[in-house]
Amino acid sequence: MNYMKKTITIDALLLMIFLLIGIAGCQPKTEEQATADNRETDTAEKLEPLTSESAVEVLTAYEKAHPDSLILISTRHGDIKLRLYPETPLHRANFVRLTKAGFYDQGEFYRVVKGFAVQGGDSDTRTMKNGAYKIPQEFNPRYIHKRGALAMARYGDERNPEKESSSHNFYIVQGEPQTVQELRAFEAKHNIKYTPEQIKLYTTIGGEPSLDQEYTVFGEVIEGMEVIDKIAEEPVNGQNWPHNIVPHKIKTIAQ
After folding, report:
1. What is the pLDDT of residues 101-111, one digit of tens each?
2. Could you state, in order of their start, the residue ranges of all structural domains in the chain?
3. Cα–Cα–Cα angle for 144, 95, 219, nearest 5°?
4. How many Å apart are CA 46 and CA 65, to the nearest integer?
5. What pLDDT was estimated at residue 99?
6. Where in the numbering of this chain does the PPIase cyclophilin-type domain appear (predicted)?
7. What is the domain class of 52-252 according to CATH?
């Protein structure tokens, strides 16, 4: 599909499909506590299961004690370096907490929609569990779904009117360039106003404005976007699952 020529109707349909079978299908399940026994370093932490009631308190305290903001995701296609935003403290703390505990070392990029996004964080073979909880949304008009944006998945239906995020499923936007006309339509739909800089980003490098103010963007790729493009080329089945899994290892790196 030529995304430069797509209409708002087609874009909305793409979003609906992705929400129904992709980003929206991310509900954490409650299972027994486990520890990271496959961590490559000796810094692994025990991962205490959280609930939606305890998550904010725990993550708020964790955020103050762990100022990490640089992340490295390693895959068989190469490495991706990301910067996490301090203005989304709960999401940053949650991602760092799971990373330091080794939780994401048992995950993979398990859903790929070329030209849209690649989704990771989960795996059918994971033994380590983090509890059943959601993270309050932290929408910030500064942070849009430009190409390379890192955001958290969530349920997208009436069961989640507050648009709270998944506990662990994340996605990185690949996206395509948008037209100004499309952006104006999304401004009206989401009751937002893009800055001239944001319009330039969307019309040049691209992204997915259909997701703005629907999912929390909490970071961005600063190196290795070509790796995302390689993952997006993976052959997939009818449910956008890669035929060959793309495992990932995630760690924090020096600031």
Report:
1. 999 999 999 99
2. 52-252
3. 20
4. 16
5. 97
6. 78-255
7. mainly beta
